[in-house]
Amino acid sequence: MPKSLLERLADLHAERVATWDPAALQVNIDQRRTLVETADHGAWLKVEDKVPDFDLREVDGDALTSRSLTAQGPAVLIFFRFAGCPACNIALPYYAETLWPGLRDLGATLTAVSPQVPERLVEIKRRHQFAFNVASDLNVLGEALGILYEFDEPSKASARAKGSFIGDTTGTGDWRLPMPTAVVMDRRGLAAFVDVSPDWLARTEAEPILDAVRALTLAEAA
To answer: How far apart are the first and last CA of the chain?
Structure first.
């Protein structure tokens, strides 16, 4: 049986425990713990909320709107951090393997969304040859959904010590990234499923998303 997403991400953490400098590893662990402990659940999009209208840019150039994505059926949005994020390079191929085929069969769209600018974000779609949408948000929709976080001070200091700044990597110019989030929208633009993961090593499995889309398609058929 294929490994779950949680198991795959646990393997990534185990590799880091074995290979990373302990101080750098602790910064990573502490940031994830802080995000879990301080998460403002009340700020997040809720089931039955209207998803704010959006206009995303697919990395191959197409404009993707809430209306166009739901024109023929449900739409699934998967928010991830950026093209070079190791956990994202585990999660998105997992969704390509376990989520996308089922969504396609159900007549639903799948769009992976990152704040990274399209000309940098395109690399992850090319590397894995994803058949679903990969789109740039520039943190506008992420902010509207209440799912953004900012690096804490130890994480900023660690990045600066390595000569890096996430705002340069994404092209947004700031320290904010989206928490990994899965949203299922119905054809009216209402949220039928929302799962936000403050800890980026604990992300939504495929089956709950598929269950939500199946329920929508059954309801529409009835």
So the answer is: 34
pLDDT in tens, 93-113: 999 999 999 999 999 999 999
The model's pLDDT over 137-192, given as tens digits with 9 standing for 90+, comes to 999 999 999 999 999 999 999 999 999 999 999 999 999 999 999 999 999 999 99
Provide, for the chain, the percentages of residues in helix, strand and coil under a 3-state DSSP scheme, each rounded to the nearest 5.
45, 20, 35
- Using DSSP's 3-state secondary structure scheme, residue 105 falls into helix
The CATH number of residue 126's host domain is 3.40.30.10
User: Is pTM, for the whole model, over 0.90?
Assistant: yes
* CA 162 to mean position of chain CA atoms: 25
Distance CA 94, CA 120 (A): 21
Count structural domains, the chain: 1
Q: Which residue has the tokens 């949680």?
A: 6
| Residue range 7-21, pLDDT digits in tens | 999 999 999 999 999
- Concatenate the DSSP letters of all residues of 139-198 into one string: THHHHHHT-EEE--HHHHHHHHHTT--HHHHHSSSSSEEEPPEEEEE-TTSBEEEEEE-S
Nearest to 99 by CA among 177, 200, 213, 194: 213
Amino acid sitting at position 69: L
Range of the domain at 182: 5-221
Question: Quick one: how far is CA 9 from the chain centroid?
Answer: 14
